[in-house]
Amino acid sequence: MAEYFIEINRWKDLVIKWTEEFDVFAPFSYGSQLLYEKVSDINVDDAVFGSVRPIQPLKFFFYPFREKILPEINKLKKTIVIGAANCDLSGLKILDRVFLNGDYKDPNYIKRRENIIIVSIDCAKPLSVCFCKALGLDPFPVDGFDLNLTALENGFVIETGSQSGEDLIRNEINRSAQENELEKRTALRENSASLILRHNEQFHIPEKIGQIFKNVFSLDEWKEVWKNCVQCGSCTNICPSCVCFFLEDTSKGGNFQKNKIWDSCLLPGYARMASGVSPRPLLYERYRNRLACKYMYMVEHFKMVGCTGCGRCIAGCPGRIDKRKVLSCVFSKRIEDVRYESVKYL
């Protein structure tokens, strides 16, 4: 890996140059929230580079809500996605295990993986709902990216992570990052990590949650902590590592098409059998299953915690359920500590 420095104006010129060959997406600000949009020479000055993860998880680009899987997709335009944080790169590792590295490989996912270049960021302004550090993750990437950005006052430290990343900036950047710039990067990273820990001082999430989750799986506390859940599926849809789907067959005019559509383990029809019997008929069972999937099942099968601490499920919950409180209360068996208060996004 190599580390370079590029001034802000030069960086924007480089992004515009990329748009001539690639579809380029970056975060744009809408009030206090960031949303991915396509970049052009008209709006590049409004793009937000190197702040915090956007509302949409990175999986939106690799795993569409609804897609045709038969026949397979043929052509994909080369795409660059700028703005993914480490929580999203960690979620992508789960998707890779399911769709890329498992026994049954998804050809569409493989094509997208081959055609999308990831320019990740250091989180400079973590949100109050972020809790990656509580799960042992850092608010900056260490792998999984093609290029990574750290925003400084007058430009960016750019770290290369792949040959594709090297090719993107070859002959475009001619200055290596200096020692003082790398020191500033270290200080910014430490500050972000400290801020996330302060945001989560009131919660007590066990360090080795994956190893001890099965000890609390059968507790009666689960029958209480879910009660504000409206089974809307928001938390699963916005999660960077949720992978559940169902298949739909359609035909029109003699043309057959098989589609893959996101599913949610919180919905009453999830895993329902043809007879109408459901393995988890009660909502509290489905809610518990969602957390068990992240903190127990994925640990057992993939050797990694499925939750990346991005906080999107907290910020997007209409029932104002803070998963950190739920976990703290179940593990401490203090249900009275669960209070559903309004969650501020920032």
Please provide a brief summary of the model.
The protein has helices spanning 8-19, 59-62, 86-99, 107-115, 163-169, 179-199, 209-212, 222-225, 234-237, 283-302, 312-315, 323-332, and strands at residues 3-7, 23-30, 33-38, 66-70, 79-84, 116-121, 147-151, 155-160, 245-252, 255-262.
Strand order of the largest sheet: 1-8-7-6-5-2-3
Question: How can the largest sheet be summarized?
Answer: 7 strands, mixed
The percentage of residues in β strands lies in 15-25%
Class computed from helices, strands and strand pairing: alpha/beta
Average pLDDT score: 92
Q: Output the helix-strand order.
A: EHEEHEEHHEEEHHHHHEEHHH
- General form: globular
How much helical structure, as a percent, in the residues? Answer: 25-40%
Low-pLDDT runs: 340-346
Quick one: how many beta strands? Answer: 10
Verbal overview:
The strands form 2 sheets. Strands 1-8-7-6-5-2-3 form a 7-stranded mixed sheet, sandwiched between helices. It has a domain at 3-199. The protein is an alpha/beta fold and 346 residues long. Residues 340-346 have low confidence and may be disordered. The protein is built from 12 helices and 10 strands. The protein is 33% helix and 18% strand. A hairpin with a 3-residue loop joins β7 and β8 (155-160).
Set down the secondary structure blueprint.
Blueprint: E1 3-7, H1 8-19, E2 23-30, E3 33-38, H2 59-62, E4 66-70, E5 79-84, H3 86-99, H4 107-115, E6 116-121, E7 147-151, E8 155-160, H5 163-169, H6 179-199, H7 209-212, H8 222-225, H9 234-237, E9 245-252, E10 255-262, H10 283-302, H11 312-315, H12 323-332
Parallel strand pairs: 2-5, 5-6, 6-7
Antiparallel strand pairs: 1-8, 2-3, 4-10, 7-8, 9-10
